[in-house]
């Protein structure tokens, strides 16, 4: 069994309103890939957010008293902090140049996933533009899956990923924030190991393992490879949602 990840070539810079499904289909053709049942497309959240118009210019944001208070602590732009607050359920940790939140989608991350890098807007200063995560990444993934099926009549999975830091470890890794037709977690409990012992605890974060692999192919700077075709995923495709991946708060021993 082989797992093959192929970055899609000739992928354009995305602008708000672009038909992302159509661009993916064209890029698959340019990369000489004929999609097949069971394939997966892994997409950087940035292209999904841009296509959905999730750009915000900081000059249009009026910071609240809470944002100004956090600005004194973190030394971050209070306008950016206001957006972070709007995208979050709760602020968990703060420090110099650092704010860790529970995002409204349920996961823990820095800056509510709001990004400055590789972002430009139609007017004003480039440094004033930021990009928010998709409003509903699961729904975004489902739409793309359905649009590609309507074109090809092929059943594929779609995963939308972002780069997150991790508690206790340095460096960011790719993690899943939205998915359609891809198992978030594969439950191996009850499956025998090499010596016949039946596993009792093992649940594999399959979607996040794939996200990390695809993130290696995408790069983090100027590589320009925001979409990766995957063939040979070792688990059966099935419907799933982000909630499958997020540990319930009552079971979270690290918060």
TrEMBL record:
<dbReference type="GO" id="GO:0005525">
    <property type="term" value="F:GTP binding"/>
</dbReference>
<dbReference type="Pfam" id="PF01996">
    <property type="entry name" value="F420_ligase"/>
</dbReference>
<feature type="domain" description="Coenzyme F420:L-glutamate ligase-like">
    <location>
        <begin position="11"/>
        <end position="232"/>
    </location>
</feature>
<dbReference type="GO" id="GO:0046872">
    <property type="term" value="F:metal ion binding"/>
</dbReference>
<keyword id="KW-0464">Manganese</keyword>
<keyword id="KW-0342">GTP-binding</keyword>
<protein>
    <submittedName>
        <fullName>F420-0--gamma-glutamyl ligase</fullName>
    </submittedName>
</protein>
<keyword id="KW-0547">Nucleotide-binding</keyword>
<dbReference type="InterPro" id="IPR002847">
    <property type="entry name" value="F420-0_gamma-glut_ligase-dom"/>
</dbReference>
<dbReference type="GO" id="GO:0052618">
    <property type="term" value="F:coenzyme F420-0:L-glutamate ligase activity"/>
</dbReference>
<keyword id="KW-0479">Metal-binding</keyword>
<keyword id="KW-0436">Ligase</keyword>
<keyword id="KW-0630">Potassium</keyword>
<dbReference type="InterPro" id="IPR008225">
    <property type="entry name" value="F420-0_g-glutamyl_ligase"/>
</dbReference>
<keyword id="KW-0460">Magnesium</keyword>
């Amino acid at each position: 069994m082989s797992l093959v990840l192929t970055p899609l070539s000739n992928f354009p810079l995305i602008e708000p309103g672009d038909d992302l499904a159509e661009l993916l289909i064209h890029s698959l053709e340019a990369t000489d890939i004929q999609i097949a049942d069971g394939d997966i497309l892994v997409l950087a959240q940035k292209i999904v957010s841009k296509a959905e118009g999730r750009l915000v210019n900081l000059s249009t944001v009026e910071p609240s008293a809470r944002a100004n208070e956090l600005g004194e602590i973190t030394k971050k732009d209070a306008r950016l902090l206001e957006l972070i607050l709007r995208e979050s359920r709760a602020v968990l940790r703060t420090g110099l140049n650092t704010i860790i939140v529970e995002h409204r989608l349920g996961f823990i991350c820095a800056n509510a996933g709001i990004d400055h890098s590789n972002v430009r807007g139609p007017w004003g200063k480039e440094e004033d533009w930021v990009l928010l995560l998709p409003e509903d990444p699961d729904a975004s993934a489902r739409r793309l899956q359905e649009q590609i099926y309507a074109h090809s009549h092929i059943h594929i999975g779609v995963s939308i990923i972002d780069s997150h830091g991790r508690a206790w470890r340095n460096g960011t890794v790719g993690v899943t924030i939205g998915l359609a037709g891809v198992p978030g977690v594969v439950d191996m409990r009850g499956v025998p190991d090499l010596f016949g012992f039946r596993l009792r605890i093992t649940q594999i974060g399959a979607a996040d393992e794939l996200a990390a692999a695809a993130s290696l192919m995408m790069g983090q700077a100027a590589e320009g490879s925001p979409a990766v075709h995957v063939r040979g995923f070792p688990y059966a495709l099935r419907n799933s949602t982000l909630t499958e991946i997020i540990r319930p708060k009552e079971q979270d021993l690290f918060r």
